[in-house]
């Protein structure tokens, strides 16, 4: 299942993947644990791409969450929260650091969701991200 972020530009509807934040990119505003979240506009500068993408409108429940990093990371935690509900912890399998990490998602009913993730680099630094998406 492919998840795309709709973008309206010059009257045209196009789809593009969303990007998240990279804690090594200049160590500026962004994704280090304890430094707050990067704003949506900062995501492209940090080089992390997620699926579902931030702002995505999926056709059915996504089967998994993936994040692609510019350097090896280990996925440590994923939670998904339906609007008006408590967060659900998604099991994350132990794995070696890699540039593409993933976790199987539970079946999601139509609605608005926020997925929060935490990943860790080999040097121990943590990155966090939030993905807001809608399931149709």
> In what range is the share of β-strand residues?
over 45%
Mean pLDDT: 77
What radius of gyration results from the CA coordinates? 14 Å
User: Helix fraction?
Assistant: under 10%
Q: Give the N-terminus to C-terminus distance in angstroms.
A: 13 Å
Shape: globular
- Which structural category fits the helices and strands? mainly beta
Unreliable parts: 1-45
Instruction: Please summarize the sheet with the most strands.
Output: 8 strands, mixed
Instruction: Enumerate how many helices there are, as a single number.
Output: 1
Query: Which sequence of SSEs, written as H and E, runs from N to C?
Result: EEEHEEEEEEE
Number of strands: 10
Kindly summarize this structure in a few lines.
This protein has 136 residues and is mostly beta strands. Helices cover 3% and strands 51% of the residues.
Explain this structure.
It is a single chain. With 136 residues, the protein is mostly beta strands. The chain is built from one helix and ten strands, in the order βββαβββββββ. It has one helix at residues 43-46, and strands spanning 5-9, 12-16, 18-20, 48-51, 57-58, 64-82, 88-90, 98-104, 111-121, 126-135. The strands form two sheets. Strands 3, 4, 5, 6, 7, 8, 9 and 10 form an eight-stranded mixed β-sheet that branches. It is globular and about 40 Å long.
């Amino acid at each position: 299942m492919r998840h795309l972020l709709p973008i309206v530009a010059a009257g045209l509807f196009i789809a593009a993947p969303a990007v998240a934040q990279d804690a090594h990119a200049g160590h500026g505003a962004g994704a280090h644990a304890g430094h707050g979240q990067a704003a949506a506009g900062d995501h492209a500068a940090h080089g992390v791409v997620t699926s579902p993408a931030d702002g995505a409108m999926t056709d059915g429940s996504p089967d998994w969450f993936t994040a692609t990093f510019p350097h090896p990371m280990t996925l440590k935690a994923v939670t998904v929260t339906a609007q008006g509900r408590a967060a659900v912890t998604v099991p994350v399998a132990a794995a070696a650091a890699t540039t593409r990490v993933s976790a199987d998602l539970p079946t999601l009913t139509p609605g608005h969701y926020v997925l929060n993730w935490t990943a860790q680099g080999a040097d121990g630094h943590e990155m966090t991200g939030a993905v807001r998406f809608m399931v149709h």
